Predict the structure.
Amino acid sequence: MRGDLMRETSSILPLQVCGLSCEIDGARLLENVSLDVATGGLTALIGPNGAGKSLFLRLCHGLLAPTSGTVAWQLDGGRRSGKKRHAMVFQHPMMLRRSVVDNLIHALATAGETRGEARRQAVAALERFGLAPLAKRPARNLSGGEKQRLAIARAAVLHPDVIFLDEPTSQLDPGATRQIERMLTELIAEGTTLVMATHDLGQARRLARRILYFSRGRLIEDAPAERFFTNPASPEARAFLAGELVW
């Protein structure tokens, strides 16, 4: 029997983003982005460096406040949700100065689980994601790929409705990338909604159901993945897919 943090029947989705803009130090970095994110699958954010992808994820997760516009999480039936049931995995995840298993226990205990239940769920998560052999190792001594797998497990163990991921396989070798993609595929199959920024177009093709193409702080294209890659509607996206530098 899982703890109280198991994903609830009522979802905080859809996520409704309306007119989202963000200005930092006088520079307009995100401009008037509006979209909805419904339940299920992986939505991939792609585009050139500095396009606003990472900033968009941080605004949705509540790490930054927008200059204007809104980010609204809703329960089924349109009722507002006061609970945060979303998590974020960063490109360079921060590991606590604790063992691998204690990183998971800390996350669960902070979220309200008893110490005993937190340990039980943490051990189960390590088994599930193939991290059990690393359980007692200091988390900060792991390789880049191992840290990223632990970060994803740490997010997943809380059973959020949505996980935001910012370049989770950046600078990882193909083997580590495949391991992480298997984790993401498993989470998708279990009903977790993923929103991920990536520069790996092959990865976006393999995993994404939907593509959001950003350029110069604007959402240029929002399309099903298959249609985007076979017939992008915007000249900016066509140029980007052709390997041309777009700024």
Residues 1-7, 76-83 have pLDDT under 50 and may be disordered. The CA atoms of residues 48 and 215 lie 6 Å apart. The chain has eight helices and nine strands. The first strand starts at residue 15 and ends at 24.
